[in-house]
Every structure is written in C-alpha cells, then in structure tokens.
C-alpha cells in the first residue's frame, strides 16, 4: 500500500493513472511562473504548483490536474487558476470521459489576493460548464494540506468527491476559524477536533463526499474508475436534492440546547443523522465505518 497523502502531485499522477499515459500540458520546462511572486521576492515554481494534462484511466481518456501541496500549500494564484480553467475549457472541446482534479490546497494564494479570487471563481464556473455538458468532474482529496477555501467550494461544485480518512474538506481552515472566533471556539491545534469536523469520515457521514477510501493510491484509483460513469448534470432536480440534504442537516442541529457540555458536537450530529454508536467513529477504519452505516455505503 502506498500512502496517497505522502505522495507528491506528480507521484500521484504516475501511480493513479494508467502507466505511462500522462501527457503534461505546460510542464515545468515551459517556465510558466507567477508574475506576482517575483515582484514580492517570493520563490516561484516553474509549473506554479499544478500539473495538468491528459491521460488514460482504466483505458478511458481523461483530463487531469494535480495540485502540489508542497508549493505554497497548493494555493491558487493567477497562473495556477488559469491552467485549471484552460484544462476544463479544453474538456468542453475534446470531451474526455471525465475530468479528475487531485485537489490539495489551502485556498487562494494570499500573495496574489484578487487575482487568486478571480481565478477560483473562473474555475467554479468552468466546472459547472463541464458538468452541464455531461462530462463528470471527479475530485480526489487526500493530501496533507486538505482542500480549503475557494478550492473547497470548487470541490463541492463537482459531480463526485472521493476522500480518504486523512483528507480534509471545508470552506475555512482551522487556523482561520481560530483567528476569527478564538481558541475557545475552535482550537486549531486539536487534531482530533479538526478531523472530526472536516475530515473524510465526517464529510462522508454528512453526505459531503461520495466515496470514502483508505489512504492508499490504489484505493483512490479504484474509486476514480467507479466514478467515471457517474455524471450528474446540473439541473433543478439536482439542486433541490442538494437543498433537501442541507435542510435535513440544519434540522438535525437545533439552535437551543445543542451544546450540553458533555458530548462532542460532531458525535452528536452523527447521532442525529442516525449513526449507531457514533462515539466510536473516530477509532474505526474505513471498512468498519462503512459496515456501521451500510445505507450510506450503498
């Protein structure tokens, strides 16, 4: 078993896709770097932290992007975002079997601020355009940096999300919540709390991700192959179903009498969502959790 979390972006591409099939567009040799970082005296990367290209997955043609968490936490800047948008727009023209986004990002690159925000908004629009064309967009989340900020929103715009137990998905990262609301509200150093509220198990139980896998590259590959035929074109019916899911989750968390000072908030939510023996969830492996909630696993 090879840990997905411990792999670099290009290692994931080499191991996840059919052997030798990845053809990169705008590789590091093109020296396509951020125009902003150099002005700030910040080191750049020749691929601006994301590799894009075409490949085969189980013999089917796919377009793929992999964010490099080791470069600025996978943060999205102008060039980084433009590469993602270009990949998605080319998918509309060439119509691959699917677009895979191997997401690992803390969100917008603060060094590029507005340019990064605009880039993320363009990525979201492009994802929805690809989905509307009937091409599945599959997001894989299992990197050490998680998937936060604008990329967290991008992920939830996709057809299908695959996460590992060690993956994290949220809008605001732990440090951001702590900085804005205080350590008493959310202690970013409490790793158990962070994973209970943004980790793969939690997101799977609440319906925010479609498949939960072990931290194994081949498990991600198998889940990605299974997702290739699961296109969910944007429609009124799909939006209504999503709103119903959110309404049910909100109803499970009453404003009054929720925090009793005894039970963990995440555990209480899992209980309200029908998870038996919810207190045991953090200690379970993926197979045991799926056995505990068979209806969710189906």
How does the SSE layout of this entry go?
Elements: H1 9-16, E1 23-25, E2 50-57, E3 60-67, H2 78-94, E4 98-103, H3 113-132, E5 137-141, H4 149-156, E6 160-164, H5 174-181, H6 191-198, H7 200-205, E7 211-213, H8 217-227, H9 236-251, H10 265-272, H11 286-292, H12 294-297
Parallel strand pairs: 3-4, 4-5, 5-6, 6-7
Antiparallel strand pairs: 1-2, 2-3
Please give a structural write-up.
With 298 residues, this protein is of the alpha/beta class. It folds into two domains: 9-231, Alpha-Beta Complex (2-enoyl-CoA Hydratase, Chain A, domain 1); 235-297, no CATH class. It has helices spanning 9-16, 78-94, 113-132, 149-156, 174-181, 191-198, 200-205, 217-227, 236-251, 265-272, 286-292, 294-297, and strands at 23-25, 50-57, 60-67, 98-103, 137-141, 160-164, 211-213. It has a seven-stranded mixed beta sheet, sandwiched between helices. The longest helix has 20 residues, at 113-132. This is Malonate decarboxylase beta subunit.
List keywords for this structure.
alpha/beta; 2 domains; 7-stranded mixed beta sheet; 12 helices; transferase activity
Strand residue content: 5-15%
Secondary-structure class:
alpha/beta
CATH class of the largest domain: Alpha Beta
Query: Which architecture name of the largest domain does CATH use?
Result: Alpha-Beta Complex
Largest sheet: 7 strands, mixed
Q: Uncertain segments of ≥5 residues (pLDDT<50)?
A: none
Helix content: 40-55%
The count of helical stretches stands at 12
The beta-strand count equals 7
Query: What string, H for helix and E for strand, traces the elements in order?
Result: HEEEHEHEHEHHHEHHHHH
Query: How is the largest sheet built, in terms of strand order?
Result: 1-2-3-4-5-6-7
Gap between N and C termini: 25 Å
Mean pLDDT: 91
Can you say what the CATH homologous superfamily of the largest domain is?
2-enoyl-CoA Hydratase, Chain A, domain 1
Counting structural domains, the number is 2
- Rg from Cα: 19 Å
CATH T-level topology of the largest domain = 2-enoyl-CoA Hydratase, Chain A, domain 1
**Shape annotation:** globular
GO molecular function: acetyl-CoA carboxylase activity; carboxy-lyase activity; transferase activity
InterPro entries: AcCoA_carboxyl_beta (IPR034733), Acetyl_CoA_COase_Trfase_b_su (IPR000438), ClpP/crotonase-like_dom_sf (IPR029045), COA_CT_N (IPR011762), Malonate_beta (IPR017556)
Organism: Pseudorhodoferax soli
Protein name: Malonate decarboxylase beta subunit
């Amino acid at each position: 078993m090879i840990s997905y979390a411990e792999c670099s972006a290009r290692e994931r591409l080499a191991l996840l896709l059919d052997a030798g099939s990845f053809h990169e567009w705008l590789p590091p040799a093109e020296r396509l770097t951020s125009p902003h970082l150099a002005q700030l005296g910040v080191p750049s990367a020749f691929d601006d932290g994301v590799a894009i290209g075409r490949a085969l997955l189980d013999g089917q043609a796919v377009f793929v992007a992999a964010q490099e968490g080791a470069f600025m936490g996978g943060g999205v800047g102008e060039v980084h975002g433009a590469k993602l948008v270009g990949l998605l727009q080319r998918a509309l023209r060439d119509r691959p079997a699917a677009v895979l986004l191997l997401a690992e990002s803390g969100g917008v690159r603060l060094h590029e601020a507005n340019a990064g925000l605009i880039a993320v908004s363009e990525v979201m629009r492009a994802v929805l355009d690809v989905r509307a064309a009937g091409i599945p967009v599959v997001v894989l989340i299992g990197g050490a940096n998680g998937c936060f900020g604008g990329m967290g929103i991008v992920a939830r715009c996709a057809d299908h999300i695959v996460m590992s137990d060690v993956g994290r998905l949220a809008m605001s990262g732990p440090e951001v919540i702590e900085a804005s609301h205080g350590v008493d509200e959310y202690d970013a150093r409490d790793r158990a709390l962070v994973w209970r509220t943004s980790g793969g198990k939690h997101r799977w139980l609440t319906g925010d991700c479609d498949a939960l896998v072990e931290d194994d590259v081949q498990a991600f590959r198998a889940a990605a192959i299974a997702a290739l035929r699961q296109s969910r074109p944007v429609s009124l019916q799909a939006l209504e179903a999503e709103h119903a899911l959110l309404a049910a989750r909100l109803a499970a968390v009453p404003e009054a009498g929720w925090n009793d000072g005894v039970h963990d908030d995440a555990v209480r939510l899992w209980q309200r969502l029908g998870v038996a023996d919810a207190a045991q969830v953090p200690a379970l492996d993926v197979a045991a959790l799926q056995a505990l909630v068979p209806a969710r696993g189906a």
